[in-house]
Amino acid sequence: TTSEWQWYKWSNESIWINGRYYCWLEYFIKRLGDEYKETGIKLVDVVDIHNYPWYNNNNNEALQLHRIYYDTLYDYPGSNGIFTSTGGWNTSLTKQYLFKRFNDWLNEHFGANHGITAGVSEWSPGPSEPNLASVIYGSHLGTFANNGVELFSPWTWFTGMWETLHLFSRNAKEYSVSSTSSDENMVSAYSSINANADSLTVMLINRDMTASRTVTINLSNFNVANGNYQTLLLSSLPATETFVSHTQNALTQNTVAVNSNSLTITVPALSTTAILLNAPTGTLPIRLLNFSGKENSSGNRILNWDLAFESNMSKYIIERSFDGKNFIDINAVTAKNSSAGKSSYSYTDSSYVDPTIKQLFYRLKMVGINEAGQRSKTVLINLKSHEVKIKIYPQPGSSAGITIEFVNSAGRSKDLVLTDALGNKIRSWRNYMAGQLFLSGLKAGVYLIKEVNKNSGNKTINKFIIQ
Q1: Is residue 459 within 8 Å of residue 434, measured between CB atoms?
Q2: Listed residue (14, 272, 73) closest to 167, CA to CA
Q3: What is the C-alpha separation between 361 and 322, in angstroms, rounded?
Q4: Which of 100, 111, 202, 378 is the most exposed place for a label (fewest CB within 10 A)?
Q5: What are the CA-CA distances from residue 216 to residues 67, 186, 221, 235, 448 (Å)?
Q6: Which residues pair with 216 in a beta bridge?
C-alpha cells in the first residue's frame, strides 16, 4: 500500500465480524492469524508497507514524519484513511502510531512473541532540500533502529541521504540502547552499543531549521574515561551531491570533552552529529581505513596503512607471527596525529627470515597517548621469493668451469659441501656468504652440491654433470 488511505481502507469494503469492525489491514492480519492457529503455518514474516507521506509542503511537519510509526501522541496532518478505521468517519482520529498498531494486531491474532517484524520498502522523505532530506532520513533510521524495524528501503534518493546512510552505517553499533531527550521532538539522541559493550555511538539529530541547540548528555550504565572523543558532523550540505566514498564526503571531524560521564555539545541547525565514545579498555578514537602488506622483489615485506581522524595517538607497534597465533613486537612507528583528516604510513620489514618460511602474519597494535591499545586485523603475506633455489649453469658443464648461484641466500651464512655421485666429499665451505660459487678443474662425472642453512639446519641438494 502506498498511501495512508490504503492502510485502513482498500476500496469500499465494510468488514464487520461479531459486531466488531475491521479495517482491511487488520482483517488481513486476522486471516493470517486464523490460518496460523489452524495449521501452525505462519504465512507472514514482515508486515511491509509503502509510504509517501503527505506534509502539505510544510517543512516543519515533514521533520516530524518519523513519528507516524510509534508515537501515540503525534497528530499526523496527512491523516485521512484512519478516519474510517472504526467503521464510520471520525475526523478526530489523527494519531497513527502505525507500526505499534500492527504489533498490537499481531499480538492479538498470533499471540505474544510472534516474531513478525515491520518494514518500509518504498518511502520518500518529502522535501528534496539536502539538509531537510538528510535529517528526515536520519530520524527514520534512528527510530526504526530503536524499534527493530526489519527493512527500510527508500524509493526516492535525494542529495544528502547518501551522506546520512554512510554516517549511520559506518558508525552505528549492533545494539540499540535507550536514550531520552528533554525536547524529543526537536533534538533526538539515537544510541547504539557494540557486542563487547565497550563502544557507544550517540547520534544527535537537531530538527530546528534555524537555530543551533546546546545539548548536555549524561551517560548511565556506560563508563567513559575523561578526555576528548571524536565527533562526526553533517550540516550545511550544498545542493549538489557531496558523497563519493568513505574518505571523500561532507563529514566534519571534531572532538567533544567528556568529564564525569557527562558531555555538552552545540549542534547546528538541521544537522546530524555522531559522538563516538569508548570505555577505558575499549577501542580508540581512530579509524583504520585499511591495512595491507606485500613482499617486494628484494624479499622485504612492505606494510601500508591509512587512518582517518587520527588524534591523541602515541604509536603503532608492528607485530609479526609465523603461525598467525603467537605474535612478537618487531618495531614501532610514531603517530603523526595529522589534522589533515587522513594519515598514511608505511613500514619495511627487512629482517632475515628463514628461506623455508613460506608465509608471515602481521598486525598493528595502535596505542593512544593514554596507553589504551587496539589491534588491527591480521594481514597474511605469502613469501614466494623466499623459496630456496639453486641455479647451476651451463649444464652440462666442463672442466673449464661452471657457476652455482644461490638464489635468495646472498649475504646469508651457509655451509656448502661438494661430493661425487657416491657421496664422497670433494670440497667444503663453511659460513659461505656470497651468492655465487664458481668451480673449475672438475673431472667428468656426476656431482652433488649440498647447501646447509645455518639458521634452520635445512638442506638443499642439487645435481650437476661435468662432461
Answers
A1: no
A2: 272
A3: 6
A4: 111
A5: 23, 14, 17, 19, 80
A6: 264
337 and 310 Cβ atoms separated by less than 8 Å: yes
Kindly provide the b/e burial profile for residues 298-336, where b requires at least 16 CB atoms within 10 angstroms of the residue's own CB.
eeebbbebbbbbbbbbbbbbbbbbeeeeebeeeeeeebe
8 A C-beta contact, residue 201 and residue 235: no
Three cell numbers at 170? 559506518
- Which is nearest to 255 in space by CA: 238, 241, 276? 276
> How many whole angstroms separate alpha carbon 359 and alpha carbon 188?
50
How is residue 162 written as a grid cell?
A: 547518501
Place of cell 655465487: 436
Please name the residue that has the C-alpha cell 649444464. 395
Q: How far apart are the C-alpha atoms of 429 and 101, rounded to whole Å?
A: 88
Question: Residue 376: which of 425, 451, 432, 320 has the closest Cα?
Answer: 320
- The span from the CA of 113 to the CA of 117, in Å, is 11
For 425, list phi and psi in degrees, rounded to 5.
-70, 130
Residue pair 224/278 in contact by the 8 Å Cβ criterion? yes
- What is the β-pairing status of strands 227-234 and 252-259? antiparallel
**What pLDDT is recorded for position 282?**
45
Least confident window among 61-65, 223-227, 436-440: 223-227
| Bond into 285 cis (ω within 30) | no
C-alpha cell at 167: 554516517
Q: Where are the alpha helices (DSSP H) in 57-119?
A: 59-62, 98-110
> Is residue 222 helix, strand or coil?
coil
Residue recorded with cell 484512519:
82
The Cα 180–Cα 302 span in angstroms is 49
Residue 200 burial (10 A CB sphere; 0-12, 13-18, 19+): buried
* pLDDT, mean over the chain: 89
Span 87-113, pLDDT tens digits: 999 999 999 999 999 999 999 999 999
Q: Buried (b) or exposed (e) across 43-70, using 16+ Cβ within 10 A? A: ebeebbbbbebbbeeeeebbbbbbbbbb
Numbers of helices and strands, H then E, in the chain: 6, 28
CA distance 401 to 442: 8
Give 26 or 435, the one with higher predicted confidence: 26
- The strand pairing partners of 342, in sequence order, are 308
